[in-house]
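Module 6 notes. Inverse folding takes a fixed backbone as the condition and produces residue identities as the prediction. Think of it as a translation problem where the source language is geometry and the target language is the twenty amino acids. Below is one complete input and output pair. Work through it position by position during the lab.
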């Protein structure tokens, strides 16, 4: 398989071994790795986001990891702009860009383009945020689906930020966010990409998630959350939704013991992995699916 002119994308559910696979592949094909995970961008979330470690950076050059302040918002559009720039820089050095992560929307923006929606006036945005706050997310989501039924299968009912965005776009433009997405154009051609999805068996993934949850606690996740809480970051910021922050906060308040803490984090992570798998079935049908046991043979062929 000739990959010299390609951009390689690696996705899969959380804890499926994407980062390790990316490093092995980068060594084999003279590649550099670009982050495509929306939590691994935050410098304050090294452990909880399972960000690559210093030893990994020493093996292969990594980009867009741990550079963003958790107090700030960071959009898909901002990531896409930075990712494009890094891809071009890496290719100019005659190396192969490898994008790895579990954030489906990042990959979708890269392969399908990012929608250019008219700016919603701040007054309207604030009114809709207040509406969400007053109603609560459950009632707000039902109101969104009444306003824009097309979003029912596109947004998780608990995703506050995306629900608000979908509502404000439909309210202001009178057109569904889904319809705006269909009008997008991409910077790259579809032939530029090799898309790989690590298709981990569910039972094996559950075991990996449990092991990783225990390892995170042993590696200092509790201290990381203590430091994170000291920053007093507003709850509407994306970084506050990282799995483990709420659970460790409850542990620090004596609401959970150590065993319950690990179990809670494992359950939340399994639920997140399930959502990733479901999303991939609807949006990544053209990706090459690789069983983890076949990684070795894949690396030999490439």
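Target side of the pair, the amino acids:
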């Amino acid at each position: 398989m000739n990959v010299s002119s390609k951009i390689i994308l690696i996705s899969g559910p959380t804890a499926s071994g994407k980062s390790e696979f990316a490093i092995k592949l980068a060594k084999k094909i003279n590649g550099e790795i670009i982050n495509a995970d929306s939590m691994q961008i935050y410098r304050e979330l090294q452990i909880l986001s399972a960000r690559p470690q210093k030893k990994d950076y020493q093996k292969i050059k990594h980009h867009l990891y741990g550079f963003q302040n958790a107090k700030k918002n960071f959009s898909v559009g901002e990531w896409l702009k930075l990712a494009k720039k890094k891809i071009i820089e890496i290719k100019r050095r005659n190396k192969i860009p490898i994008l790895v992560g579990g954030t489906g929307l990042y990959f979708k923006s890269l392969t399908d383009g990012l929608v250019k929606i008219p700016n919603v006036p701040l007054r309207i945005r604030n009114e809709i945020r207040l509406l969400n706050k007053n109603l609560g997310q459950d009632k707000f989501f039902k109101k969104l689906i009444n306003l824009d039924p097309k979003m029912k299968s596109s947004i998780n009912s608990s995703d506050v930020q995306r629900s608000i965005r979908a509502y404000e776009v439909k309210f202001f433009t009178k057109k569904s966010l889904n319809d705006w997405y269909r009008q997008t154009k991409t910077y790259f051609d579809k032939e530029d990409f090799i898309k790989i999805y690590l298709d981990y068996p569910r039972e094996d993934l559950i075991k990996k998630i449990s092991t990783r949850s225990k390892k995170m606690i042993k590696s200092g996740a509790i201290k990381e959350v203590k430091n994170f809480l000291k920053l007093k970051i507003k709850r509407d910021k994306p970084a506050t939704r990282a799995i483990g922050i709420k659970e460790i906060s409850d542990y620090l308040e004596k609401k959970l013991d150590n065993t319950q803490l690990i179990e809670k984090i494992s359950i939340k992570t399994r639920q997140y992995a399930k959502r990733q798998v479901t999303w991939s079935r609807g949006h990544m049908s053209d990706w090459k699916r690789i069983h983890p046991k076949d990684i070795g043979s894949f690396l030999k062929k490439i």
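Reference fact for the lab report: The first helix runs from residue 18 to 29.
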